[in-house]
Write a sequence for this structure.
C-alpha cells in the first residue's frame, strides 16, 4: 500500500527518453494523496510535453532559475523549502555528473543545493554510459552524501542494447518514495502525545483559550506512527484531520485531558510521553449556567484558579519512562525552558519563540531548541513535519 497523504514531492525531469513515464509517475503520486510540483530541464521538454505534466500535477511547471513570478524572484529557494522529498526521474549521466560536482547553474541543481529534503535519483541511460568508470565514480560520490538511488533496472533499452540503465517503473519508484517517509526505529513503542489548546468555559458561549493550532502535535503523531510507534493522541479543539493509524481522543478542557491521560498512562503501558498541548494555565472558579449579560457596568471580574499540571503528572507517574515537554515562550526562551526542564524533572524540553509569527502557534513552520540536562541543540526553521521527524530522531538515543 502506498501512503503519501499530504506529502510534498518535487519531481525533477531531465532530458532522457524515459521522461515519457513521468506523467504516469505523477498520476500515481497524486492518486495516493501527494502534492506534486515539477521542475523540467530545457532538454526534458523535448521528450515530454510540459502541458501534459501541468494537467496531471495540477501545478505550474518550473523551468527557470530566475523566476520573476515566484516570491521576490527567488523561485529556487521557495521550492527548496517547500519540498518534503526531491526526486530526479529520469536522471541522465550528465545530471549525475553535475550533481556530483555540486554545480548550481540551473533551477534543478540550485534547488537541490538549497534544500534539506531527502534526494532520490532514478537513473536512466545507455548500459555503457551507466557502467562507465566516470559515471560510477560520480554515483559513489553522491551515495557517500546519503543521496538515494532507485534502480536502474536491467533489460532491453530504447537503443536496442540490453543491460543496466533503464529507469525503474513508476510503481516501484512511488513505493520507494512512500517507504522513505516511514522507518521502524520506534517499532513496538507506545507514545502518548498531547496537542492543541484547551478551552475553559466561562458560560455557555464564552471560554478562555489560546492560539495553539495543534499543528506541531499532530505532526509529531504522524511522524511517530510512520516510525513504527503505536500512537495515542489526546487533542484539544482543532481543525486538523488526524493521520490514519493514530488513535485520537478529543477533549475540550484541561480536566478532560488529564482524565484521559491518567487512564492511558495507568492502563496502556506508555513508553514515551510528549506534552505538546498548550494547556490553559487557568480556568474560571465559577461556571455560569446562563450567558453573562452585558450591563452598564464597565468592568467585570472573573476569578481564576490554576488548572492541573498535566506535564508534571506525567513526569511524576512515568519515572522509569521518557517524558518530553514543550515550552512556548515570548522572552528568555532558553532560560525559561531550562527552569521548566529541571522543575518538572523532564528528560527533554523543546522550546520556541511564539512571539515570532513565522514560527508561532498557527504557522506551518517551526524553529525550536532541544534541551536536556547535558545538551542544547537548535533545529533551524523548516516545516513542522520535518521538525517532528528531527525531534523523534533526537529522542531515539534516550530509548533503552
Amino acid at each position: 500500500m502506498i501512503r503519501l497523504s499530504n506529502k510534498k514531492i518535487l519531481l525533477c525531469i531531465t532530458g532522457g527518453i524515459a521522461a515519457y513515464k513521468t506523467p504516469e509517475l505523477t498520476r500515481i503520486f497524486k492518486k495516493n494523496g501527494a502534492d506534486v510540483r515539477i521542475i523540467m530541464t530545457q532538454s526534458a521538454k523535448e521528450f515530454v510535453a510540459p502541458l501534459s505534466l501541468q494537467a496531471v500535477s495540477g501545478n505550474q511547471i518550473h523551468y527557470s532559475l530566475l523566476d520573476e513570478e515566484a516570491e521576490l524572484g527567488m523561485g529556487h529557494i521557495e521550492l527548496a523549502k517547500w519540498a518534503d522529498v526531491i526526486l530526479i526521474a529520469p536522471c541522465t549521466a550528465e545530471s549525475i555528473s553535475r550533481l556530483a560536482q555540486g554545480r548550481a547553474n540551473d533551477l534543478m541543481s540550485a534547488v537541490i543545493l538549497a534544500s534539506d529534503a531527502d534526494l532520490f535519483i532514478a537513473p536512466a541511460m545507455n548500459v555503457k554510459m551507466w557502467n562507465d568508470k566516470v559515471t560510477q565514480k560520480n554515483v559513489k560520490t553522491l551515495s557517500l552524501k546519503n543521496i538515494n538511488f532507485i534502480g536502474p533496472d536491467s533489460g532491453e533499452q530504447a537503443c536496442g542494447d540490453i543491460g543496466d540503465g533503464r529507469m525503474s517503473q513508476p510503481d516501484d519508484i512511488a513505493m520507494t518514495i512512500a517507504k522513505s517517509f516511514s522507518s521502524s526505529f520506534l517499532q513496538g513503542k507506545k507514545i502518548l502525545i498531547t496537542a492543541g489548546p484547551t478551552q475553559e468555559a466561562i458560560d455557555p458561549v464564552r471560554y478562555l483559550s489560546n492560539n495553539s493550532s495543534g499543528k506541531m502535535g499532530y505532526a509529531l503523531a504522524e511522524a511517530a506512527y510512520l516510525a513504527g510507534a503505536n500512537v495515542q493522541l489526546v487533542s484539544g479543539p482543532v481543525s486538523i484531520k488526524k493521520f490514519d493509524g493514530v488513535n485520537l481522543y478529543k477533549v475540550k478542557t484541561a480536566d478532560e485531558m488529564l482524565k484521559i491521560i491518567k487512564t492511558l498512562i495507568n492502563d496502556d503501558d506508555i513508553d514515551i510521553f510528549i506534552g505538546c498541548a498548550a494547556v490553559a494555565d487557568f480556568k474560571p472558579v465559577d461556571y455560569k449556567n446562563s450567558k453573562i449579560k452585558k450591563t452598564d457596568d464597565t468592568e467585570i471580574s472573573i476569578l481564576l484558579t490554576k488548572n492541573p499540571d498535566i506535564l508534571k503528572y506525567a513526569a511524576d507517574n512515568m519515572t522509569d519512562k521518557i517524558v518530553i515537554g514543550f515550552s512556548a515562550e515570548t522572552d528568555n526562551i532558553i532560560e525559561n525552558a531550562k527552569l521548566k526542564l529541571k522543575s518538572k524533572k523532564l528528560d527533554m524540553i523543546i522550546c520556541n519563540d511564539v512571539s515570532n509569527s513565522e514560527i508561532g502557534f498557527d504557522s506551518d513552520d517551526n524553529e525550536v531548541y532541544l534541551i536536556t540536562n547535558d545538551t542544547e541543540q537548535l533545529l533551524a526553521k523548516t516545516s513542522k513535519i520535518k521538525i517532528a521527524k528531527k525531534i523523534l530522531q533526537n529522542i531515539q538515543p534516550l530509548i533503552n
User: Anything to note?
Assistant: The CA atoms of residues 201 and 207 lie 4 Å apart.
